[in-house]
Write a structure and sequence with these properties.
Shape: elongated
Number of strands: 0
CATH class of the largest domain: Mainly Alpha
Largest sheet: none
Number of domains: 2
Strand content: under 5%
Radius of gyration: 23 Å
CATH topology of the largest domain: TerB-like
Order of helices and strands: HHHHHHHHHHHHHHHH
Oligomer: single chain
Distance between the termini: 64 Å
CATH architecture of the largest domain: Orthogonal Bundle
Length: about 300
């Protein structure tokens, strides 16, 4: 495995160690990024993968997978020395090592040192590697890189898919429908966030829209709504939300969706000028005519 992949896997494991207590604050994330920046040979694409691991807690099963991946990436004494050197350089980058950092470093160092780099150890990993990779692709719910493209393109769908895999809720829907309702949730969240405060009535309007248009049970619609609102602003690409929702829907669905957007805007008692303008911009992005927008606006006032 190339050296860059070895360093990337080490970086993921370091992030996993930071999640040991189940929480990483905003300041800790920034500090962790500063430390990881000292690791050499990480590309822009690598940094995107690391963002996935910084995004949400890493539990025991996933951490164990990362340990196994790091060990599998070490195929020679040189690899082992490189991993140890990178670990030490990163930990000592700011000239001060806390006791907690030292404990974490010792645990990762022990995992690195445990790797057998003899010819027999290399042969064993050669036999185990393809099987492990196949198992991860088809049965491993803890490999978040499987959703790398979704993380970059649609954070809401990424979170929905990840939490479904963790068994938080059951949604018996095709993947295409899951993507579509995630996009719909993101667009409704744009309207709900116009005044920077989401009311209970706006939340309920989003849930009702998902139940009506996609036939979701209340629990499932609430689940998607919570994720859509929590991910709003987390590097969501509004242009991409429009474009992908346009691609995934028919004109009739998009026209009907205007009613859902106005329902969210109207939920707190009145439709403000800013909310109307936001919906107008969304309608333009969805290639609807001005007349279709006006008709939806009139329906909302009835």
């Amino acid at each position: 495995m190339p050296e860059s992949n070895l360093i990337l896997t080490l970086a993921k494991l370091i992030i996993a160690a930071a999640w040991v207590n189940g929480e990483v604050t905003h300041d800790e994330v920034n500090s962790l990024k500063d430390l990881l920046f000292h690791l050499k040979d990480l590309t822009a694409r690598d940094w995107s993968e690391l963002e996935i691991y910084l995004d949400s807690p890493i539990h025991t099963a996933e951490r164990n997978r990362l340990v196994a991946e790091l060990q599998a990436a070490i195929n020679s004494p040189q690899d082992k020395a490189l991993a140890l050197m990178a670990l030490n350089e990163m930990i000592e980058a700011d000239g001060e090592v806390t006791e907690e950092e030292r404990v974490v470093a010792q645990e990762i160092e022990a995992a690195i040192e445990a790797v057998d780099v003899s010819i027999f150890g290399q042969m064993g990993r050669l036999m185990r590697g393809p099987l492990r990779r196949r198992q991860q692709v088809f049965a491993e719910p803890h490999n978040r890189e499987l959703y790398m493209e979704d993380f970059l393109r649609n954070r809401i769908y990424f979170q929905v898919r990840r939490r479904l895999d963790l068994g938080e809720v059951e949604l018996d829907l095709p993947q295409e429908d899951l993507r579509k309702l995630s996009l719909a949730g993101g667009l409704m969240a744009r309207v709900a966030h116009v005044d920077r405060e989401v009311t209970e009535s706006e939340f309920s309007a989003m849930v009702d829209a998902l139940r009506k248009d996609w036939g979701l049970a209340r629990e499932a619609a609430t689940f998607v709504t919570e994720i859509a609102l929590s991910e709003f602003g987390a590097e969501l690409d509004h242009y991409r939300l429009n474009r992908e929702f346009f691609t995934a829907t028919s004109e009739q669905e998009r026209v009907r969706f205007m009613d859902a957007l106005f329902a969210v805007a109207k939920a707190d008692g009145e439709i403000s000028h800013r909310e109307t303008e936001e919906i107008r911009l969304i309608s333009l992005g969805l290639k609807l005519t001005h007349q279709q927008f006006i008709q939806a606006k009139l329906r909302a006032k009835q």
